[in-house]
Amino acid sequence: MRDLLTEELADAGYEVRAAAGASPGLELARAERFDLIITDLRMPEMDGFDLIRGVMALPEPPHVVMITAFGSIETAIRAVKLGAYDYITKPFEIEELLLVADKALGERSLRSKVARLQREVEEKFGFTNIIAKSQAMRDVVSLVQRIAGSTASVLVTGESGTGKELIARAIHYNSNRSAGPFVGVNLAAVPEGLIESELFGHKRGAFTDARSDRPGLFVEADGGTIFLDEIGELALPLQAKLLRVLQEHEVRPLGATKNQRVDVRVVAATNKNLEEMLADGSFREDLYYRLNVIHLDLPPLRSRPEDIVPLAEHILETLGVRHEPPRRMRLSPEAQHLLLAYHWPGNVRELMNVLERGIALCQGELIADDDLPPHVRERRPADFLGAAVARRMTLAELEREFIERVLEDEAGNKTRAAQRLGLDRKTLYRKLDEYAKSDGTSRPSTPGEAE
Questions:
Q1: Are residues 111 and 173 in the same domain?
Q2: Could you give the C-alpha distances from 336 to 128, 304, 376, 412, 423, in angstroms and in order?
Q3: Residue 89 DSSP SS3
Q4: 91 shares a domain with 14
Q5: 232 and 95 in a common domain
Q6: Is residue 72 domain-shared with residue 204, that is, in the same domain?
Q7: What's the chain's average pLDDT?
Q8: What is the pLDDT of residue 132?
Q9: Buried (b) or exposed (e) across 399-427, using 16+ Cβ within 10 A?
Q10: Total tally of structural domains belonging to the chain
């Protein structure tokens, strides 16, 4: 029987290993990775039940299909309780076994894909994937880590393109709701007359075009997180209905006669100043405080220049992998300098667009200054002092960065750099030595240096 099944399964396209008994079979399963084990029940030394127990103790246990001539409902129930995937009673047709094997391996493959996709999503939106070299972004990430496990509503503010949805997804995928759905909606993109139906659902016939029931996004997000982007665009009547949902944890679809309970965490985002909207009466104060239990304000890219190059390198790595064929993209020193000098009104989204253009235009794997768009190459000076204030730099830190920037702009020529700084060369050398010692490095000796 073992030889026959080995031959039939191999002919069906499977890679098959055979073992003469449960003990050697378990040893084989411990030594190699298998997707499916087909086993008899009655065997000497160790029976099929003991084999299942041993297999289920493996780090990644394969599916088990048990074959026996001693078929009974009690045996089947016991095998399944121990972890068996299915059960076949002798006598059986080969086609029956092949069908069970195909079903078991198909389900295992699907589970493996789901687990892999889940890991990829968690990695993509994990904290290590949020570039935070600057103190401002480190503070944001620290707060996100602290609040991820909470159920409190979160309000994320910041300019367009600062990554508000990325933060919302990081909150969700690092919370105990990560197995639930993440449902996002841009309220500015939905026509005002359809927003209520989009959020809360409708019953068939509730209005002219309601040809079937629609659950609504809050019901779709049940057990997970709903991300309400551009919350400042919501009209006052709908603000009142949203407030009721947040207070009662229930939605009533248009045309329905009963409320439906929902368990949803709300993360809202806006690039508007909601406090100004409170003052002019265009945003409800009670809704504001219901949403603003935890507030995350994302700093613009121009106020955190330390993040620009690391962000660019991360984006290039991601885009390069997607390229056909994959490319290992890098930035030239000149291109890096231009990115640091630009003021980034479109923030991270604009940076990504600029780098996508650079990849499309560059001939090799090094993006040069000529591959950047003209408005970036204009070298408009960044708000250096404003960025320094936003980064909470000390006067000593500001002096060091300014000296290093000037030295870089002079291509390492210390004589010209000293002249621009209004320092004599000895003072400049002394300061550079101090910086090198504080970094744990040593400066090259003076002879041979660029003068």
A1: no
A2: 23, 15, 11, 16, 27
A3: strand
A4: yes
A5: no
A6: no
A7: 86
A8: 85
A9: ebbebeebbeebeeebebbbeebebeeee
A10: 3
Per the CB < 8 A criterion, the answer to whether 298 and 157 are in contact is yes
Backbone phi, then psi, for 65, in 5-degree steps? -115, 125
Q: Which residue has the higher pLDDT, 117 or 357?
A: 357
Please say whether the dihedral angle defined by the alpha carbons of residues 335, 333, 389 and 407, taken in this order, is positive or negative: negative
Q: Tokens 């790595």 label which residue?
A: 317
Question: Phi and psi at residue 154, in whole multiples of 5°?
Answer: -130, 135
With H, G, I as helix, E, B as strand and everything else as coil, classify residue 325: coil
Nearest to 348 by CA among 164, 163, 168: 163
Q: Tell me: do 196 and 283 sit in the same domain.
A: yes
Assessment of whether the complete model's pTM goes beyond 0.70: no
pLDDT (tens digit per residue) in 222-237: 999 999 999 999 999 9
Alpha-carbon span 144 to 434, nearest angstrom: 37
Question: The domain containing residue 315 runs over which residues?
Answer: 302-377
Confidence band, pLDDT 50/70/90 cuts, at residue 380:
low
Q: What is the mean pLDDT of residues 163-176?
A: 91
The three-class DSSP label of residue 70 is: coil
Quick check: is 336 in a domain? yes
Q: What angle do CA 166, 296, 352 make, to 5 degrees?
A: 35
Q: Are residues 242 and 161 in the same domain?
A: yes
